[in-house]
Inverse folding.
Protein backbone atom coordinates (compact mmCIF):
# COMPACT_ATOMS: atom_id res chain seq x y z
CA UNK A 1 0.00 0.00 0.00
CA UNK A 2 2.89 2.36 0.75
CA UNK A 3 4.36 1.70 -2.68
CA UNK A 4 0.99 2.09 -4.39
CA UNK A 5 0.33 5.48 -2.78
CA UNK A 6 3.84 6.70 -3.60
CA UNK A 7 3.55 5.58 -7.23
CA UNK A 8 0.17 7.25 -7.61
CA UNK A 9 0.73 10.49 -5.68
CA UNK A 10 4.51 10.79 -5.33
CA UNK A 11 6.77 10.88 -2.31
CA UNK A 12 5.64 13.19 0.47
CA UNK A 13 5.73 13.54 4.23
CA UNK A 14 2.58 11.59 4.97
CA UNK A 15 1.20 10.44 8.28
CA UNK A 16 -0.53 7.07 8.26
CA UNK A 17 -3.42 6.85 10.71
CA UNK A 18 -4.59 3.29 11.33
CA UNK A 19 -6.94 1.49 13.67
CA UNK A 20 -5.49 -1.02 16.10
CA UNK A 21 -6.49 -4.03 14.01
CA UNK A 22 -4.44 -2.98 10.95
CA UNK A 23 -0.69 -2.73 11.71
CA UNK A 24 1.50 -5.54 13.06
CA UNK A 25 4.88 -5.10 14.71
CA UNK A 26 6.50 -6.12 11.41
CA UNK A 27 4.56 -3.43 9.53
CA UNK A 28 5.52 -0.73 12.04
CA UNK A 29 9.14 -1.80 11.84
CA UNK A 30 8.98 -1.51 8.06
CA UNK A 31 7.54 1.99 8.37
CA UNK A 32 10.33 3.06 10.71
CA UNK A 33 13.01 1.49 8.49
CA UNK A 34 11.77 3.11 5.28
CA UNK A 35 14.28 5.18 3.33
CA UNK A 36 12.16 8.26 3.96
CA UNK A 37 10.92 7.54 7.46
CA UNK A 38 7.16 7.21 7.42
CA UNK A 39 5.16 8.84 10.20
CA UNK A 40 2.35 6.86 11.76
CA UNK A 41 -0.30 7.16 14.44
CA UNK A 42 -2.00 3.88 15.30
CA UNK A 43 -4.30 2.45 17.90
CA UNK A 44 -3.00 -0.33 20.11
CA UNK A 45 -4.67 -3.51 21.40
CA UNK A 46 -6.10 -3.53 24.92
CA UNK A 47 -3.35 -5.92 26.01
CA UNK A 48 -0.73 -3.24 25.36
CA UNK A 49 -2.49 -0.96 27.83
CA UNK A 50 -2.14 -3.67 30.49
CA UNK A 51 1.62 -3.90 29.90
CA UNK A 52 2.16 -0.14 30.11
CA UNK A 53 -0.37 0.64 32.82
CA UNK A 54 2.22 0.85 35.62
CA UNK A 55 4.52 3.18 33.66
CA UNK A 56 1.58 5.34 32.56
CA UNK A 57 0.35 5.64 36.15
CA UNK A 58 3.49 7.60 37.02
CA UNK A 59 2.90 10.16 34.24
CA UNK A 60 0.82 13.31 34.81
CA UNK A 61 -2.39 14.05 32.95
CA UNK A 62 -2.36 16.89 30.40
CA UNK A 63 -5.65 18.64 29.70
CA UNK A 64 -6.17 18.87 25.94
CA UNK A 65 -9.81 19.90 25.81
CA UNK A 66 -12.62 20.38 28.27
CA UNK A 67 -13.52 16.68 28.34
CA UNK A 68 -10.25 15.22 27.05
CA UNK A 69 -6.95 14.60 28.79
CA UNK A 70 -3.87 12.60 27.84
CA UNK A 71 -0.72 11.02 29.24
CA UNK A 72 2.47 10.74 27.19
CA UNK A 73 4.97 7.91 27.56
CA UNK A 74 8.11 8.08 25.35
CA UNK A 75 9.60 4.64 24.80
CA UNK A 76 12.12 3.23 22.28
CA UNK A 77 11.82 6.06 19.77
CA UNK A 78 8.02 6.10 19.95
CA UNK A 79 5.46 7.83 22.12
CA UNK A 80 2.46 6.11 23.66
CA UNK A 81 -0.52 8.41 24.15
CA UNK A 82 -3.15 7.42 26.69
CA UNK A 83 -6.29 9.44 25.97
CA UNK A 84 -9.33 9.70 28.24
CA UNK A 85 -12.55 11.15 26.83
CA UNK A 86 -15.41 12.09 29.14
CA UNK A 87 -18.03 11.61 26.41
CA UNK A 88 -16.60 8.24 25.46
CA UNK A 89 -16.55 7.19 29.13
CA UNK A 90 -20.28 7.87 29.51
CA UNK A 91 -21.04 6.05 26.25
CA UNK A 92 -18.97 2.93 27.02
CA UNK A 93 -20.23 2.80 30.60
CA UNK A 94 -23.85 2.94 29.49
CA UNK A 95 -23.25 0.19 26.89
CA UNK A 96 -21.46 -2.01 29.41
CA UNK A 97 -24.16 -1.51 32.04
CA UNK A 98 -26.93 -2.34 29.58
CA UNK A 99 -25.24 -5.55 28.42
CA UNK A 100 -24.30 -6.57 31.95
CA UNK A 101 -27.88 -6.17 33.19
CA UNK A 102 -29.19 -8.22 30.26
CA UNK A 103 -26.62 -10.98 30.90
CA UNK A 104 -27.33 -11.06 34.63
CA UNK A 105 -31.08 -11.34 34.04
CA UNK A 106 -30.56 -14.09 31.45
CA UNK A 107 -28.36 -16.08 33.83
CA UNK A 108 -30.98 -15.79 36.57
CA UNK A 109 -33.60 -17.10 34.13
CA UNK A 110 -31.37 -20.05 33.23
CA UNK A 111 -30.91 -20.78 36.95
CA UNK A 112 -34.66 -21.10 37.42
CA UNK A 113 -35.32 -23.28 34.38
CA UNK A 114 -35.71 -27.05 34.72
CA UNK A 115 -32.81 -28.21 32.56
CA UNK A 116 -30.25 -30.98 32.41
CA UNK A 117 -26.61 -30.09 33.04
CA UNK A 118 -25.75 -30.19 29.31
CA UNK A 119 -28.78 -28.05 28.42
CA UNK A 120 -27.86 -25.50 31.07
CA UNK A 121 -24.26 -25.32 29.84
CA UNK A 122 -25.48 -24.84 26.25
CA UNK A 123 -27.81 -21.99 27.24
CA UNK A 124 -25.06 -20.50 29.38
CA UNK A 125 -22.68 -20.42 26.42
CA UNK A 126 -25.28 -18.73 24.24
CA UNK A 127 -25.94 -16.05 26.87
CA UNK A 128 -22.24 -15.29 27.24
CA UNK A 129 -21.76 -15.10 23.46
CA UNK A 130 -24.59 -12.59 23.11
CA UNK A 131 -23.17 -10.46 25.92
CA UNK A 132 -19.74 -10.29 24.32
CA UNK A 133 -16.36 -11.24 25.73
CA UNK A 134 -15.73 -7.91 27.49
CA UNK A 135 -18.94 -8.20 29.54
CA UNK A 136 -18.98 -11.99 29.94
CA UNK A 137 -15.60 -11.97 31.71
CA UNK A 138 -17.10 -9.79 34.45
CA UNK A 139 -19.37 -12.63 35.56
CA UNK A 140 -18.00 -15.92 36.89
CA UNK A 141 -20.25 -18.94 36.30
CA UNK A 142 -19.93 -22.57 37.35
CA UNK A 143 -22.16 -25.58 36.75
CA UNK A 144 -21.69 -28.48 39.18
CA UNK A 145 -22.22 -32.15 38.48
CA UNK A 146 -25.89 -31.89 39.46
CA UNK A 147 -26.45 -29.10 36.94
CA UNK A 148 -26.72 -26.27 39.48
CA UNK A 149 -25.63 -22.90 38.07
CA UNK A 150 -23.76 -20.48 40.32
CA UNK A 151 -23.33 -16.85 39.24
CA UNK A 152 -20.84 -14.42 40.80
CA UNK A 153 -19.94 -10.88 39.83
CA UNK A 154 -16.15 -10.41 39.62
CA UNK A 155 -15.85 -7.04 41.32
CA UNK A 156 -12.11 -6.73 40.79
CA UNK A 157 -12.50 -7.08 37.01
CA UNK A 158 -15.45 -4.70 37.13
CA UNK A 159 -13.31 -2.05 38.84
CA UNK A 160 -10.62 -2.48 36.18
CA UNK A 161 -13.22 -2.23 33.41
CA UNK A 162 -14.68 0.95 34.91
CA UNK A 163 -11.23 2.48 35.23
CA UNK A 164 -10.47 1.82 31.56
CA UNK A 165 -13.77 3.00 30.13
CA UNK A 166 -13.34 5.98 27.85
CA UNK A 167 -9.59 5.37 27.57
CA UNK A 168 -7.65 4.28 24.51
CA UNK A 169 -3.94 3.95 23.83
CA UNK A 170 -2.27 5.39 20.73
CA UNK A 171 1.24 4.80 19.44
CA UNK A 172 3.20 7.16 17.22
CA UNK A 173 6.65 8.10 16.00
CA UNK A 174 5.55 11.71 15.60
CA UNK A 175 6.62 14.49 17.92
CA UNK A 176 4.44 14.62 21.02
CA UNK A 177 4.84 18.38 21.51
CA UNK A 178 1.19 18.93 20.56
CA UNK A 179 -1.04 16.20 22.08
CA UNK A 180 -4.20 17.86 20.75
CA UNK A 181 -2.88 17.57 17.18
CA UNK A 182 -2.23 13.84 17.67
CA UNK A 183 -5.75 13.36 19.00
CA UNK A 184 -7.31 15.29 16.11
CA UNK A 185 -5.34 13.19 13.61
CA UNK A 186 -6.62 9.98 15.16
CA UNK A 187 -10.19 11.30 15.17
CA UNK A 188 -10.05 11.25 11.37
CA UNK A 189 -10.72 7.52 11.64
CA UNK A 190 -14.00 8.34 13.35
CA UNK A 191 -14.93 10.62 10.44
CA UNK A 192 -14.13 7.85 7.95
CA UNK A 193 -16.34 5.36 9.81
CA UNK A 194 -19.08 7.97 10.08
CA UNK A 195 -18.90 8.53 6.33
CA UNK A 196 -19.74 4.85 5.74
CA UNK A 197 -22.65 5.06 8.17
CA UNK A 198 -23.94 8.21 6.45
CA UNK A 199 -23.75 6.64 2.98
CA UNK A 200 -25.46 3.42 4.07
CA UNK A 201 -27.90 4.89 6.56
CA UNK A 202 -28.85 8.54 6.14
CA UNK A 203 -28.43 8.65 2.36
CA UNK A 204 -29.57 5.04 1.75
CA UNK A 205 -27.10 4.48 -1.09
CA UNK A 206 -26.54 0.76 -0.52
CA UNK A 207 -26.88 -2.03 -1.52
CA UNK A 208 -25.75 -1.66 -5.14
CA UNK A 209 -27.22 -4.07 -7.69
CA UNK A 210 -25.23 -3.17 -10.80
CA UNK A 211 -23.48 -5.61 -13.13
CA UNK A 212 -21.51 -3.28 -15.39
CA UNK A 213 -18.40 -1.34 -14.30
CA UNK A 214 -19.60 1.95 -15.76
CA UNK A 215 -22.88 1.70 -13.84
CA UNK A 216 -21.05 0.94 -10.60
CA UNK A 217 -18.74 3.91 -11.15
CA UNK A 218 -21.72 6.16 -11.89
CA UNK A 219 -23.45 5.01 -8.69
CA UNK A 220 -20.30 5.69 -6.65
CA UNK A 221 -19.97 9.13 -8.23
CA UNK A 222 -23.55 10.03 -7.32
CA UNK A 223 -22.96 8.68 -3.81
CA UNK A 224 -19.87 10.85 -3.46
CA UNK A 225 -21.76 13.95 -4.59
CA UNK A 226 -24.56 13.19 -2.13
CA UNK A 227 -22.05 12.81 0.67
CA UNK A 228 -20.42 16.13 -0.28
CA UNK A 229 -23.82 17.84 -0.04
CA UNK A 230 -24.40 16.19 3.32
CA UNK A 231 -21.07 17.50 4.64
CA UNK A 232 -21.84 20.95 3.22
CA UNK A 233 -25.14 20.92 5.11
CA UNK A 234 -23.32 19.88 8.29
CA UNK A 235 -20.93 22.83 7.96
CA UNK A 236 -23.86 25.20 7.50
CA UNK A 237 -25.57 23.74 10.55
CA UNK A 238 -22.49 24.39 12.69
CA UNK A 239 -22.74 28.10 11.97
CA UNK A 240 -26.51 28.53 11.83
CA UNK A 241 -28.00 25.83 14.06
CA UNK A 242 -25.35 24.38 16.35
CA UNK A 243 -26.16 20.89 17.64
CA UNK A 244 -28.33 19.87 14.71
CA UNK A 245 -27.18 16.99 12.51
CA UNK A 246 -28.01 16.49 8.82
CA UNK A 247 -29.99 13.38 9.75
CA UNK A 248 -32.46 15.48 11.73
CA UNK A 249 -32.81 17.98 8.89
CA UNK A 250 -33.52 15.17 6.40
CA UNK A 251 -36.23 13.77 8.68
CA UNK A 252 -37.86 17.16 9.19
CA UNK A 253 -37.79 18.16 5.53
CA UNK A 254 -39.20 14.77 4.53
CA UNK A 255 -42.52 15.88 6.04
CA UNK A 256 -42.90 18.44 3.23
CA UNK A 257 -44.82 16.95 0.32
CA UNK A 258 -45.75 18.11 -3.16
CA UNK A 259 -49.18 16.96 -4.38
CA UNK A 260 -51.33 17.39 -7.49
CA UNK A 261 -55.00 18.15 -6.91
CA UNK A 262 -57.10 17.49 -10.03
CA UNK A 263 -60.65 18.78 -10.17
CA UNK A 264 -62.75 17.72 -13.21
CA UNK A 265 -64.78 20.42 -14.94
CA UNK A 266 -68.13 20.12 -16.71
CA UNK A 267 -66.56 20.47 -20.16
CA UNK A 268 -64.27 17.43 -19.74
CA UNK A 269 -61.14 19.31 -18.79
CA UNK A 270 -59.32 19.32 -15.41
CA UNK A 271 -58.36 22.09 -13.02
CA UNK A 272 -54.85 21.17 -11.78
CA UNK A 273 -53.59 22.58 -8.50
CA UNK A 274 -49.96 21.78 -7.71
CA UNK A 275 -49.64 22.33 -3.99
CA UNK A 276 -46.95 21.83 -1.37
CA UNK A 277 -47.91 21.05 2.18
CA UNK A 278 -47.45 23.81 4.72
CA UNK A 279 -44.54 23.16 7.14
CA UNK A 280 -45.25 22.33 10.75
CA UNK A 281 -44.06 24.81 13.35
CA UNK A 282 -40.76 23.01 14.05
CA UNK A 283 -40.03 22.65 10.32
CA UNK A 284 -40.78 26.34 9.77
CA UNK A 285 -38.36 27.25 12.58
CA UNK A 286 -35.71 25.03 11.01
CA UNK A 287 -36.13 26.66 7.60
CA UNK A 288 -35.91 30.10 9.16
CA UNK A 289 -32.75 29.12 11.04
CA UNK A 290 -31.17 27.86 7.82
CA UNK A 291 -32.31 31.01 6.01
CA UNK A 292 -34.30 29.00 3.48
CA UNK A 293 -37.61 30.06 1.96
CA UNK A 294 -40.14 27.78 0.34
CA UNK A 295 -41.27 28.81 -3.15
CA UNK A 296 -44.75 30.30 -3.47
CA UNK A 297 -47.65 28.04 -4.33
CA UNK A 298 -47.99 27.52 -8.08
CA UNK A 299 -51.01 29.13 -9.79
CA UNK A 300 -53.74 26.73 -10.96
CA UNK A 301 -53.86 25.62 -14.57
CA UNK A 302 -56.38 24.00 -16.86
CA UNK A 303 -55.43 20.72 -18.57
CA UNK A 304 -57.09 19.20 -21.61
CA UNK A 305 -58.17 16.19 -19.61
CA UNK A 306 -58.11 12.61 -20.83
CA UNK A 307 -58.24 11.96 -24.55
CA UNK A 308 -60.97 9.54 -25.73
Amino acid sequence: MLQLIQQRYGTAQRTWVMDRGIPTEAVLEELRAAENQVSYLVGTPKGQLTKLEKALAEKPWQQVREALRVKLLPQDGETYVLAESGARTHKERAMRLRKLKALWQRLKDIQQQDLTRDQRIEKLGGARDRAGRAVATLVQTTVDAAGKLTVTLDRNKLRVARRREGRYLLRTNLSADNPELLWRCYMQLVFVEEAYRTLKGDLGLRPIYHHKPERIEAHLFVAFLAYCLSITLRQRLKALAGGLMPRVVFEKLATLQLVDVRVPTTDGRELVLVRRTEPERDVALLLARLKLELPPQSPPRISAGKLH
About this structure: Residues 203 and 226 are 7 Å apart (CA to CA). The mean pLDDT is 86. DSSP finds twelve helices and eleven strands in the chain. The two ends are 67 Å apart (CA to CA).
